[in-house]
Amino acid sequence: MKFEDFIREGKVKIATKNEGLIKSLIKTSGDDLKFIKHLEINKLSARKIMSNYYDILRAVLEALSLSKGYKIYSHDAFSYFLEFIDEKNFAIKFDRLRKIRNGINYYGEEISVDEVRDNVEKIEILINQLKKKYFKNLILKDDR
């Protein structure tokens, strides 16, 4: 499958660049990161924290896709979008995280505290790299 296939299927639409929405997504993702960093990862919270970190990453990707003129309605389309903009390494990492999140949310899979800690670290790195590369002008001093 290719990114263009998602466009043909209506899972991705050509969109007008909406600077206000892009800025809002970047700001709220930063706010959400500040909040979630203070939560304790334990056996009870691990599943929910993993899912929330994934959602923050997905919000940054949504801002990125909007900045390139696309509105994405399918989580798996984000991986193809990343390949489409020559970010294959990010695509592979995001798709792995998407599968973990889907397993937790839709198939009742368990996730260990250690796995969540490892993934949280990776997600924070991905978010910071994406923001620095694509949104330097939108990063507020508090988000660095």
Percentage beta strand: under 5%
Using only C-alpha atoms, the radius of gyration works out to 15 Å
Shape: globular
**CATH H-level homologous superfamily name:** Nucleotidyltransferases  domain 2
CATH hierarchy: architecture:
Up-down Bundle
CA-to-CA gap between the ends? Answer: 36 Å
In DSSP terms (H or I, runs of 4 or more residues), the helix count works out at 6
Q: Could you give a short account of the major beta sheet?
A: 2 strands, antiparallel
CATH class: Mainly Alpha
> How many strands in all?
2
Identify low-pLDDT runs. none
Strand order of the largest sheet: 1-2
| Proportion of residues in helical segments | 55-70%
Give the mean pLDDT: 94
Examine the coordinates and then state which fold CATH places here, giving the name of the CATH topology.
Four Helix Bundle (Hemerythrin (Met), subunit A)
Describe the structure.
69% of the residues lie in helices and 4% in strands. Helix 2 runs antiparallel to helix 3 and helix 4 (75-84) packs antiparallel against helix 5 (88-107). It is mostly helical and 144 residues long. A two-stranded antiparallel ribbon has the order 1-2. The protein has a single domain (3-143), classed as Four Helix Bundle (Hemerythrin (Met), subunit A) (Up-down Bundle).
